[in-house]
Amino acid sequence: MTPSTVGLGAAEIAKLVRSKQISAQEVAEEHLALVRLQDPVLNSFLQITDDAAIASAKAVDAKVAKGEDPGELAGVPVALKDNLVTRGFATTCASQILKGWRPPYTATVVEKITRAGGVVLGKTNLDEFAMGSSTENSSFGPTRNPYDLNRVPGGSSGGSAAAVAARFAPLALGSDTGGSIRQPAALCGIVGVKPTYGMVSRYGLIAFASSLDQIGPFARSVKDAALMLQVIAGHDPRDSTSLESGVPDLLSDIDGGVEGLRIGIIEELIDGVAPMVGSAIAEAANSLSAQGAKVEYVSVPAVRYGLSAYYLIAPAEASSNLARYDGVRYGLRVAGQDMNETYISSRTKGFGPEVKRRIMLGTFALSSGYYDAYYGKAQKVRTMIINSFQKAYERFDVLLSPTAPTTAFELGAKAADPLSMYLSDVCTIPTNLAGHPAMSVPYGLGENEMPIGVQILAPALGEVNMLRVARAVEKGSPLIRRKLFWE
Fold first, then answer.
1. 162-178 mean pLDDT
2. Which of 15, 25, 99, 112 is at a distance of 20 to 30 A from 226, taking alpha carbons?
């Protein structure tokens, strides 16, 4: 009898496939069957690419049969956020404006996953153009949290996070502009990593805010997240922001422990969080201290201004990036009496309310007479945040904070209050503004028995220490025993 691979980690599946204990095709078929059966309730996938997945799995099996190396992700199912372009398959960004568009090229990270033997199952749901914190802004309906179907999975990469948490795939990719990997990872009780800006190629990522966006992995363990990051990282000449420095070995020292490491708890990001979230951070800090780390509180004062600066810089860049969706070159076209009316009609029907809100905010911030007062000042605050972090990293190797101020909230609870929704990312945004790496690791259950995430932050290219600390947090974490919706 073929062993079940649902619920196994990526490294375990790859090992079974390499040793011929199970075929990549069997792994793919089992996961696809689960997605077909259960995802209509969860709505984590926008598109399931059955035929392409089976073809990829067969290619992996052919390599194994010939004695060739099938790659680090041999036969491992992977889900992709639907803002990563895939040649020949619809890429929508969960927006009507891209209805019917099939990209003529494939994102670099997707190419790397395929070369490493990964099997792409399909494209996952998101807040439209990655603008949101709950995956309720999708044009194709909200994704639900796999631990409680009445609650959100976080956003904007909620589909990817929910798919991994629900065991539809052991790995997924998301994008993180202000917390869109880490926040849903926290709310869904899994691991999510935002790498150093430029460590992972953005070629083929449909841009939200180009100076902030970064692609990263979701997994159910720190080691699997590190494995995925190792695969997708590296210089890409097709991305002008791609770093030319080599990729460090992220796995060899991941169990090296935290003895002697200096870890700072960010005081400003503890204030105002839910009581059980604050307690989880304290418990994680105590666990790290017991494992030999030197843990202290640290003030990083400029992070208080992160939310304000972000909601000028990100919408400004979005306003520019989304100007290309005009109803002419690709996607939805609503014909008008003249070209100007066609532009207006196409964008009015094609974009949802949150995207329109951010385009208008960004256009205002960049407009004549307001540029220096808003966008220019926000960039100065961004520099303050970078300097504030730099000062903290002179004393500490990594920093610690909550990932999100609360556990997952109910669907619709914040839909009518944009500011309340924006505050969901108050702990994650400062790292994006600095361009530094950060990740979320699950740490027990909080209010309403929903998962809590602990955020580990590091200086630029500090992923090795970040992952070591994350692994130590994971080892000390209480087990999440709550059942998934389909169990």
1. 98
2. 25
pLDDT digits (tens, 9 = 90+) for 253-306: 999 999 999 999 999 999 999 999 999 999 999 999 999 999 999 999 999 999
Return the SS3 of 485: coil
- Can you give the residue range of the structural domain that contains 457? 10-307+376-476
- Write down the catalytic residue from 180, 242, 319, 388: 180
Residue 366 in this model has a pLDDT that exceeds 70: yes
Q: Residues 56, 134, 156, 388: which is the catalytic one?
A: 156
Q: For the chain, what is the domain count?
A: 1
Residue-level pLDDT at 394: 98
Residue 470 has pLDDT above 90, yes or no: yes
Question: Which tokens belong to 202?
Answer: 């953005």
Q: Are 359 and 319 in contact (CB under 8 A)?
A: yes
pLDDT in the model for residue 2 = 67
81 is catalytic: yes
Q: Is residue 395, in this structure, part of any structural domain at all?
A: yes
Contacts of 220 (CB under 8 A, 6+ apart): 9, 164, 165, 167, 170, 190, 191
What is the identity of the amino acid at 284?
Answer: A
Q: What is the pLDDT of residues 79-90, one digit of tens each?
A: 999 999 999 999
3-state secondary structure of 253: coil
Contacts of 9 (CB under 8 A, 6+ apart): 170, 219, 220, 221, 223, 224
Active site residue 440: no
Q: Is position 223 annotated as part of the catalytic site?
A: no
Residue 326 resides in a domain: no
Helix (H, G, I), strand (E, B) or coil at 284: helix
Burial class (CB in 10 A: 0-12, 13-18, 19+), 368: exposed
What is the C-alpha to C-alpha distance for residues 445 and 453, in angstroms, rounded to an integer?
A: 9
Residue 103: count of CB within 10 angstroms of its CB = 18
β-pair partners for 298: 266
At 97-128, the pLDDT tens digits run: 998 899 999 999 999 999 999 999 999 999 99
State how far the Cα of 24 lies from the Cα of 261, in Å rounded to an integer: 40
Q: Is residue 110 part of a domain?
A: yes
- For residue 294, the SS3 value is strand
Q: Per the residue annotation, which of 56, 63, 81, 134 is the catalytic one? A: 81
Q: Is residue 33 part of a domain?
A: yes
CATH classification at residue 96: 3.90.1300.10
